[in-house]
């Protein structure tokens, strides 16, 4: 795990800026709460990348407003031009998969190089803000099939960031890519969020919601979310179709 | 220099796909010609990132068509949301700078993390194409002030790519980020392009063209281009305002 994942004392980062990647899901809402508690001035970044689950973007807006982000930018980035994922292309989202199926290899909902793209854009914004901290809610427990959710990847990206930027060249800063959730279970993330006052009813996880934004209850993301609340012993505020 | 920069025998990569970053300038047109000569099936990628010099994008389209790219995608990416560069924000492009000014530190035309962002998106597309080769026309001679034009940066990105992707995890591929121009002077690049039949009249370099697309003749990019043709002993086909 990166040195950047040390625990912060509350308020210890007052006066520092950080870019936080916010998807509208429960993981990134918890990360935003953690960055705020550390004292960071939070610049939240979301992406409209042609995802099927666009209710995420409305959720991201609500989460940022409710939790006091200083600024929230939603960048349009039409990854559908590339194809290759059930989240952006016209492929059915898998439903009611058993654990062994969810754990076997890389899911078809994988978006090629997504976290590399998101972190790169966060890096560009952070550099123009004179920030050197970026938060991302990757998780190696529930998303073990995604290569870009692993610590080795995050460390390599951090090293690239140090070489990619003006501050890297001038030696004035070292980039910190914070991944505070990387080793937590979904239940632990939910408990942490509850402790920090996150309103999870504002968040959205489903890959395949109905037209009103209700969660399907059966995609991998719904299954993990439901189980997480159950196992955390926290009431699940999500409206499920079924 | 990366191992990926070995010279290719003409046609030796027949049947392989590569993503080539094409800006519309003379460097990337030459890179595209080099990839084609090696035999790659070229998937060209350009960005509409809110740059002031949008004539580049028309130039990119013409270059790709004239040189036989299999596909050309121009991705919209509004980096103006982040601010921080004379190429995207409303700051005057510097003119008629002396050599020592051009060489001193990082120019204000630097776009934060631009090559990291562009390479990440190329990586996403390449992965969905089952390609493992990416070409970028970075140059450490004329752009020594840009951190993301250096070999160390490219090598770090390559390492990140190997950890970021499905093919990296499954161990089936090793990413090659090719930077065939990295140690060439502008005159050498022009001579190489001429040898490969590049029509430089289709390319555009100026940071601050007039309304009809004519080059200003005085920004850093025009100065380097003019001198390059002069020093290569090749007639400069560029229409300059002055």
TrEMBL record, chains A, B:
It catalyses: 7-carboxy-7-carbaguanine + NH4(+) + 2 ATP = 7-cyano-7-carbaguanine + 2 AMP + 2 diphosphate + 2 H(+). ATP binds at residues 22-32. Coiled coil: none annotated. GO terms for biological process: tRNA queuosine(34) biosynthetic process. InterPro entries: QueC (IPR018317), Rossmann-like_a/b/a_fold (IPR014729). Its EC number is 6.3.4.20. It is an enzyme of class 6 (ligase). Its cofactor is Zn(2+). Binds 1 zinc ion per subunit. Zn(2+) binds at residues 206, 216, 219, 222. CDD domains: QueC-like. Pathway: Purine metabolism; 7-cyano-7-deazaguanine biosynthesis. Gene3D superfamilies: HUPs. Belongs to the QueC family. Catalyzes the ATP-dependent conversion of 7-carboxy-7-deazaguanine (CDG) to 7-cyano-7-deazaguanine (preQ(0)). PANTHER family: 7-CYANO-7-DEAZAGUANINE SYNTHASE. This is 7-cyano-7-deazaguanine synthase. It comes from Stratiformator vulcanicus.
């Amino acid at each position: 795990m990166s040195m950047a994942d040390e625990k912060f004392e509350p308020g210890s980062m007052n006066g520092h800026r950080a870019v936080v990647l916010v998807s509208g899901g429960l993981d990134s809402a918890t990360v935003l709460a953690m960055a705020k508690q550390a004292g960071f001035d939070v610049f939240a970044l979301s992406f409209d990348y042609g995802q099927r689950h666009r209710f995420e973007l409305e959720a991201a807006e609500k989460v940022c407003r409710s939790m006091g982000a200083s600024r929230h930018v939603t960048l349009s980035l039409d990854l559908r031009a590339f194809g290759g994922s059930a989240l952006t292309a016209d492929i059915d989202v898998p439903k009611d998969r058993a654990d062994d199926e969810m754990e076997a290899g890389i899911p078809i909902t994988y978006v090629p190089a997504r976290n590399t793209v998101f972190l790169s854009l966060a890096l560009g914004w952070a550099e123009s803000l004179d920030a050197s901290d970026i938060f991302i809610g990757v998780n190696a427990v529930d998303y073990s099939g995604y290569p870009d959710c692993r610590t080795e990847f995050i460390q390599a990206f951090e090293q690239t960031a140090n070489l990619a930027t003006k501050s890297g060249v001038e030696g004035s800063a070292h980039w910190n890519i914070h991944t505070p959730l990387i080793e937590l279970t979904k239940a632990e993330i939910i408990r942490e969020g509850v402790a920090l006052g996150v309103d999870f009813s504002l968040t959205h996880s489903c890959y395949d919601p109905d037209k009103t934004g209700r969660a399907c209850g059966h995609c991998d993301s719904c299954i993990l979310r439901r189980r997480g609340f159950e196992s955390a012993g926290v009431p699940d505020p999500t409206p499920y179709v079924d």
